[in-house]
Amino acid sequence: MENIVCNGCSLLCDDVSAEVDGKTVNTLGLCRLGHAHLETAVKQKAGSIEKNLEKAADILASANNPLLIGWTHATNEAIKEGFDLAATLNGQFVSGADLGPGQTMTHSIHNQSLDVDLEYVRNNGEFIIYWGSDPSESLHRHPSRFAVLPRGEKIPEGIESRTIGVVDVRQTETMKMANHRLILPAGSDAELLDVVISELEGKSAIKESVLGIPGSELIGFVSGLQKSDCTVIFYGSGVINSGNHEANLTKIEKLVEVLRGVGKEAYALPMFVPSNTMGVIKAKPKVNPLQKIASGEYDVALVVGGDVLLELPGKAAKSLAKAKLVYVGTPGGLTDKRAEVSFHCQDTIVAGTGTMTRVDMNDIQFKKWKASKDVDSISDVLSKLHEIIKKKA
Amino acid sequence: MFNYYGDKTVKLNPMELYNLLPKTNCRLCEPKTCMAFATKLALGDISPDECPPLLEPGFESNLEKIREMVAPMLSAEATGIKLDEEKCTGCNNCVVVCPVDVAAEPPTSEGKAAMSTDTVFRVENGVSKIINLEKCRRFPPDRLNCRVCEQYCCTDAIEIW
Question: In chain A, what residues touch B115 (CB-CB under 8 Å)?
Fold first, then answer.
């Protein structure tokens, strides 16, 4: 068994081990998602890139309006190459993060130093709130590794030293661990946050029932906030993709401000799932509208590290499928099949090179291991393509 | 699916046992109070014969009932744990929350994955496995009514009875 880094999700677990024995993959510590990801990754065959470089470079260099898209599963090094290539091609750099997470990251909530290192959460987080996020279904190890169960410097008894709250529109599996379970009607997050903030400000806003939540439960939740010296809110797709993300995030920001105003520590962190969403956001804070893709504005697209035809909304995917596609990434998927030229690389979990940015903005370095083969990475392909295109220019 | 069966397994409610005790708080037993005695009875840590007033005339029926209730617990040599791999997501909650695992491999207390073969739980190939059932605190000599793994298993993959 060798120590590896998993890129199955944005937690980028670096405390796990794996070995590949023929067709058998054995792992220790990897969750179901990570193990399945590795099993798939080791079966994928990376191909020789040399023969297709010229053809791909020709397609990209002759494009009138090229799009460089994907990236949320690529390494930070590949993303940097992508930026440089986009500049040379005068093309548009768009990532999966632009479909929601990126828009969220433009909200002022992320300019207020509300983010915090997950290790800090482990050591200090007293009241942990999953708001519109369900790690039991997406980031399996988030509660056990960082936020709920582990012990820390100021959390000597692990979960016994913490209070857990889950706010969602439905009963979730994460609620099983929670002290406070608030189920609210869809789209009413901002309203509930308003009530909580008012109560914290001493306005006695909680009545017998609020949005179907018994007043006593809500008072208990607010009391938990008042008692906690360090509150961390992990907001997820329920907050971001509910169609009301501006108002929701503004209220979460306000809640953090109110708690800080009374001398408490408070933070708010997103719960994005794709492995390197934060890497893209870190490198590219500004976002681009999806409408341009849907309107068929791009004649050529370089797709990197993601099956964008599968991930994009239908209208945008249909439009993009009409463009000439050059694909760089792991083999398989709709985009790879549709591409005029494809470069097949090893998945980063197997290649063990480069860095990705964890959901708390910490860079995690991948590690080479026995399964790693000496083949070109996505970053290498982009670099070679760039060189050829520069010569053509 | 793994099924781990004990010889005999029971769930006891201390209040039910307490209601059958003399409730005199005579302080003749080691736990000193009847409620504490009932709790220890429920955990299988004490025998009903260690309650002197319960052995006196007038309590024969209660003594018999208590003996019937705790008999499986006192003779239990194993615990009943069911770990359903189909439901398990490999979240590592059981590894991190298990007191035995934390003692056997301290980094698990900080959320790290179990790597040694000394723990009760270890996540292998994406799902949790019970690799040392005999170390579970529900076994003798501890025989504690510990259920933390079941309590914090979000997907109900772990069931104790």
Answer: 1, 17, 28-29
